[in-house]
Specification:
Elements: E1 7-12, E2 21-28, E3 31-38, H1 57-67, E4 73-77, H2 81-90, E5 95-103, E6 111-120, E7 123-129, E8 142-143, E9 156-165, H3 169-180, E10 183-188, H4 190-193, E11 200-206, E12 213-219, H5 228-235, E13 240-248, H6 251-261, H7 275-285, H8 292-301, E14 304-307, E15 311-317, E16 328-336, E17 338-339, E18 342-343, H9 355-368
Parallel strand pairs: 4-7, 9-12, 13-16
Antiparallel strand pairs: 1-2, 1-8, 2-3, 5-6, 6-7, 9-13, 10-11, 11-12, 14-15, 15-16, 17-18
Length: 372
């Protein structure tokens, strides 16, 4: 993750008194990603030094065996964990971890409340209220940098959206909308985003402020080859997080640094589109949106460009980050839709105009892996 400009912010491992799992917090801007792996394969219960009371080493090991490199939890800050958890469960949410108070075992930095509810597949929503904790992350993590330190040397500032792949879109949407109160933000069908060979149906859910965006995809059938969403579901052995979109205010500057890091183990990106794609984009976006130099830079770096009725979207996707063709990242910049210094969430859409070109490159990548 260092090749995305993320820096180590906190840790929990043997050196901090945690003998059940090792866990490292990487941060850029407001994004905090936690990478955790068990030390052993037993049902040993977490001790008071553990940051996650619900963690089970044996279950974690089974998760890795089943899914490979994958996202287990999406964290949401809430003001009242117990009330939020109860409301979600009363509206059909499946409880995973009932509300629990996590205390700093050294008694120095306070405590937080935590609970978990099933999202889809083996992924969960982790509800957190850490307002009574003064450390940089959560109780029983050791801060590597001082709390409040601004991290993010490559310009990635926040998570824009998190996409899930599921078997049944309407069933999942009903579950999520009832549980969370989220509303439908955007919708795409196979005709919108498919290629000759594969496609998907997709819907984006959003909370009231529309700062939490959860697109959900399902595969379509009856084409010459399996939908890439179906390939994900098979390779992941079930539903799960397909990709995480990372927002930057300067996608070209971010990518320049990320591509420099590729040589020492950074991300690989999906293949660039041909020159004809960018000629088509100019006609779709319209005159004056970008300079010729900006179009040339987008073509050189492989950045895709799209628009909606309010703004413009620039995006690029990495190849899968594990050894299975499953989870990957998106780097995204949104242009326009400004109210003073505030940008409307989802400005520029979600790349509907790019999906066919993107799907073709993913299909070519899967063909290279001999997945069909």
């Amino acid at each position: 993750m260092a090749s995305m400009g993320m820096e180590l912010a906190a840790k929990s491992d043997l050196s901090t008194g945690n003998d059940i799992f090792t866990s490292y917090v990487m941060q850029t801007g407001s994004v905090k990603m936690v990478f955790t792996a068990p030390y052993h394969n037993t049902d040993k219960s977490p001790e008071e030094t553990s940051p996650f009371p619900g963690f089970n080493a044996k279950t974690a090991g089974e998760f890795f065996i089943k899914h490979g490199f994958a996202a287990r939890a999406i964290g949401w800050n809430v003001e009242d964990v117990e009330a939020t958890f109860n409301t979600m469960v009363q509206n059909g949410g499946i409880p995973v971890l009932h509300p629990v108070l996590v205390k700093d075992f050294k008694g120095e930095k306070g405590s937080c409340m935590m609970a978990e509810v099933s999202l889809y597949g083996d992924a969960v929503v982790r509800l957190i209220d850490a307002r009574n904790y003064t450390g940089g992350f959560l109780p029983n993590y050791e801060d590597v940098v001082a709390p409040g330190t601004k991290l993010g040397k490559y310009g990635i500032d926040r998570i824009d959206h998190i996409v899930g792949n599921v078997h049944n879109l309407q069933q999942t949407l009903a579950y999520l909308k009832n549980m969370t109160g989220f509303h439908e933000f955007a919708e795409f069908t196979a005709e919108d985003v498919g290629t000759v060979d594969s496609g998907l149906n997709s819907c984006v859910l959003a909370n009231n402020s529309e700062m939490i965006l959860l697109p959900v995809n399902e595969p379509t059938f009856g084409t010459r080859r399996k939908s890439q969403i179906q390939t994900y579901l098979e390779q992941n052995e079930g539903e799960g997080v397909q990709h995480v979109a990372m927002f930057t205010a300067d996608i070209f500057g971010t990518l320049e640094l990320m591509r420099q890091a590729t040589a020492w183990g950074g991300f690989e990106f999906m293949p660039n589109q041909d020159h004809g794609y960018y000629e088509r984009v100019k006609g779709r976006i319209g005159e004056g949106a970008f300079t010729e130099e900006q179009y040339a830079m987008a073509e050189k770096m492989g950045v895709l460009i799209d628009k909606d009725d309010q703004g413009i979207l620039l995006q690029i996707f990495t190849k899968p980050i594990g050894d299975r063709p499953t989870i990957f990242f998106e780097i995204i910049q949104r242009v326009g839709c400004m109210t003073g210094a505030v940008q409307k969430p989802g400005c520029g859409g979600f790349g509907k105009g790019n999906f066919k070109d993107l799907f073709k490159s993913i299909e070519d990548y899967e063909n290279d892996l001999k997945i069909n």
